Amino acid sequence: MATMPTLFISHGGPSIVISDTPARHYLESVSSLMPRPKAIVIVSAHFETHGVTVVTDPRPEMIYDFRGFAPELYEMVYPAPGELELAEKVLELLENAGLSPSRLGKRGFDHGTWTPMKLAFPDADIPIVQVSIDPNRDAAWHYAVGKALSPLREEGVLLVGSGHITHNLRAYFSVMRQGAAVDPELAGKVTAFTDWFDEKLKANDSKALLDWKSQAPFAADNHPTDEHLMPIFFAYGAAGEHPQVKRVHDSVDNGFFANDSYLFQ
């Protein structure tokens, strides 16, 4: 069985599944980047817990964790199954790594999971196990979560971090809802931040990456809160010590909201 890569995706807003954008079309092509996964373990920025939690739900339902979007989005269903056996293995690996995981028997798919997976694997026939982030923990902790689960790649499991490379929602909604012009200074800060990540990832500079809040340019402007960046550290940690890194997508919405995606092999 081929060793699977790991993947970080910027999942966009819920409307990505109906919008004619480069980010949507990229997500529709994700399955062509790798062998067909036996199963998927996904860390979504919208699944926050104290510590790390693993969902054991065999039939996850839908979570429409958004307001004010197109009515059709609230009718969409992504009926991918869970997989208890895989969830138990995830729990065991995390426990062996000293991460003291918790289990959650019932939880649906939030939009950080179902919107990108609906585009990437529309048949919904690949089991998905969800793993949480902890917004109070740092990059190194999420890197360790990914590292603990890295052995699953040898079993055909795709490990996915679903967050966003930039996530300044105040600026985003000012542009979208109030008709404000894109601030070219902010757009420049986004480019500086995303280019820094690309450079450090390709150099495998884990020391700088895990200290991103101090070293990355304009960190607070791009991430007023940390939760949407934590999944990239999960995917990076899960890829092993010296991964090959490819930025497989880098479109930008409204001049500053970046949709970078990375494949780690």
TrEMBL record:
<keyword id="KW-0479">Metal-binding</keyword>
<comment type="similarity">
    <text>Belongs to the DODA-type extradiol aromatic ring-opening dioxygenase family.</text>
</comment>
<dbReference type="InterPro" id="IPR014436">
    <property type="entry name" value="Extradiol_dOase_DODA"/>
</dbReference>
<dbReference type="GO" id="GO:0008270">
    <property type="term" value="F:zinc ion binding"/>
</dbReference>
<keyword id="KW-0560">Oxidoreductase</keyword>
<dbReference type="Pfam" id="PF02900">
    <property type="entry name" value="LigB"/>
</dbReference>
<protein>
    <submittedName>
        <fullName>Dioxygenase</fullName>
    </submittedName>
</protein>
<keyword id="KW-0862">Zinc</keyword>
<dbReference type="GO" id="GO:0008198">
    <property type="term" value="F:ferrous iron binding"/>
</dbReference>
<dbReference type="InterPro" id="IPR004183">
    <property type="entry name" value="Xdiol_dOase_suB"/>
</dbReference>
<dbReference type="GO" id="GO:0016702">
    <property type="term" value="F:oxidoreductase activity, acting on single donors with incorporation of molecular oxygen, incorporation of two atoms of oxygen"/>
</dbReference>
<feature type="domain" description="Extradiol ring-cleavage dioxygenase class III enzyme subunit B">
    <location>
        <begin position="23"/>
        <end position="250"/>
    </location>
</feature>
<keyword id="KW-0223">Dioxygenase</keyword>
